[in-house]
Design brief:
Elements (H helix, E strand, L loop, with lengths): L4 E4 L9 H10 L4 E7 L11 H7 L6 E7 L7 H7 L3 E5 L6 H10 L3 E6 L17 E5 L15 H10 L4 E5 L7 H7 L3 E4 L1 H4 L4 H18 L1
Parallel strand pairs: 1-8, 2-3, 3-4, 4-5, 5-6, 6-7, 7-8
Helix pairs in contact: 2-3, 5-6, 6-8
């Protein structure tokens, strides 16, 4: 049985206090620190890159879960490894040789994740799943925070969980206290949330609720 891992998205944090925000989330019970990397090409938005990860690394021991929404992710493996990223998650839609990319990520000492957009069929992941540490099922179109959760993506999570019961399955996009049960029941165990955590009156309570909901769903499976 997989366990719950809660990953606040730092895209919703106060970037002027990024290191402090990371430590605040860890103190509140976060397992991962989700870093949204956007290049303005694969997605229209532009956020942070390896230099910020490198600056952040000395200030936190947290697990840096880096989601690269970028074209040609191969060109960034070395930079993110050197910067101190713990997990390098790339989009299957952005590469022509996923198998080689996964091997490169592992060779650099990082965990490897693969992300799929809402309209991408989940079976494209299957040939690679046994060599992946995590699969990210996007529940919004990548590129911007604050979008509404897309429940139709949950069938992909269910299909993936049924085939790979021990795989870490991450969901990202619009997750909140109203829909976490749907994601957990489908089989997601790694929960990314930005606005619903950072804008909550009690972020720690939201993190605890997410964890409890996921763990209960996993126990029931």
């Amino acid at each position: 049985m997989v366990v719950a891992k809660i990953a606040p998205s730092l895209l919703s944090s106060d970037f002027a206090c990024l290191a402090q925000e990371c430590e605040r989330m860890l103190a509140l019970g976060a397992d991962y620190l989700h870093m949204d990397v956007m290049d303005g090409h694969f997605v229209p938005n532009l956020t942070l890159g390896a230099p910020i990860i490198k600056c952040l690394r000395p200030h936190t021991k947290g697990f840096l879960d880096c989601h690269l929404m970028v074209s040609h992710p191969e060109q960034w493996v070395d930079d993110f490894a050197s910067a101190g990223a713990d997990l390098f998650c790339f989009h299957i839609e952005a590469t022509e040789d996923a198998a080689t990319l996964i091997d490169r990520i592992h060779a650099k000492g990082m965990k490897a994740g693969m992300a799929v957009k809402p309209k991408t069929p989940i079976d494209v992941v299957y040939p690679f799943a046994s060599n992946l540490d995590q699969v990210l099922v996007m529940t919004v179109e990548p590129g911007f925070g604050g979008q509404a959760f897309m429940p139709e993506c949950m069938q992909k999570v269910s299909d993936l969980r049924s085939k790979f019961p021990e795989l870490d399955i991450q969901v990202d996009g619009g997750l909140d206290t109203e829909n976490i049960a749907v994601a957990a029941k489908a089989g997601a165990n790694v929960i990314v949330a930005g606005s619903s955590i950072f804008k909550a009156k009690s972020p720690g309570e939201v993190i605890s609720l997410f964890r409890k909901t996921v763990d209960e769903a996993q126990t029931a499976m």
